[in-house]
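Fold this: Peptidase
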Amino acid sequence: MGSLKAALIAASVALLLAGCASTTPGVAVSPLYDPFRAGGLPAEDGPSGIREDTPAPQGEVKGGDGGDADKLATLGVNDVAEFWEKNYSDAFDGSFTPVEDLESYNSESPSSPEICGGETYDNPNALFCPPDHLIAWDRGVLVPLGQQFFGDTSIAALLAHEYGHAVQDMAQIVDDKTSTLVSEQQADCLAGTYIRWVAEGKSPRFRLSTGDGLNHVLAGVLTLRDPTYVADDAPYLEQGHGTALDRISAFQIGFTSGASECGKIDMDEITERRGDLPLTLPEENGDDPTSGDVEITKDVVTSLVDVLGTVFQPAEAPKLSFDPPECSDAKPSPAASYCPESNTIFVDVPTLAEMGRPSDREDYTLLQGDNTALSVVTSRYALAIEHERGEPLDSATAALRTACVTGVAQRAMSENAGLALTLTAGDLDEAVAGLLTNGMVASNVNGETVPAGFTRIVAFRSGLGGDADLCYNRFK
């Protein structure tokens, strides 16, 4: 099931996705790690949403009002069905049977009906009901807000997730013993395979640019992540959809590798993908959970730079300055900059503090927190390490290498409890949100990022799951 009450009440993403970093020009390299591609497709902005010549929505919608929200959702279901009719047999055994029973409800109405044994009033949601072979959606809140903040194609992606559950049943890749987390991660992955089909221009109803359009779809996936749990709630980790990093990772598997890989997702695969990254917050005084967020101050930034020195052990540690940047061989960036000539990291603490001010869907914004900001400083330290190795710092490949090396540092900060500043559950989701909104973690020495948030996240994930040598070999 796709969540959630406040989830799509979420995010003025249109607001943030314009970004702070400029885009860097350059020459591309390999398919998945090419700075000018997204999952192997050319990364470019362009129109996204319903095609002008789209066919009319087909199918009866029980409880529907015939309004724009129901028409959009029905188009989404029609499109996903056509995708699977054409592609199901390439990945799975058996035959594909379209979901023909559709239902719409208004979660704002007290008279909203029960669906699949559950109340729908005050429950903005979309769902697949296995016993009834039914897909349902909330036309009152979920669809209109999702459309407003993430775009028309994000609604098709949402329904592709629900249709993924129907495909799981047909292909028998889940059973009663399958954990909710595995089922949901597979559905995210299956949605990714559909969205690639749209991005390739094969959908007769929707289109999606691989730059800004795909960024918006990913922002919707991020917003529908699970809450951050405390240690005592660890059992819930297998009963939800996953963290933002989990969900986007699963989506990317489908987008880049196809539906057959989605069926291979199980708890072992998820556990390996997560590694030793923190999943729960510690409890404070045995009662209230710690938030995991710190206020961004000069002392915190100084502590971070000291910690990164411990992590990287450079021959000559970069200096830290809180003065305005002075640099003859690089352009300054808004919150933090690195100057190779003087080997100095310049930090604008007020700007950084605003970037790291905790906010989330309750504030009608995309997720941000202290690590949205601190990961940017970490990326400038990564540039210093690259500079020490004699790597070029001003290319598009350097931008992705920097995101990768930042991922290496972030994982080290989450594994080593002895460091003065460590990462906790939720921090990596904050970094991923920043990669979508401003791209600074995946920017070169001049603050220039690459076009696709998808590829920025791929680079960051490479570092989380590898080491610095992998980053230098993969992004060279």
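Confidence is low (pLDDT under 50) at residues 1-19, 285-290. Residues 47-208+244-278 form one domain.
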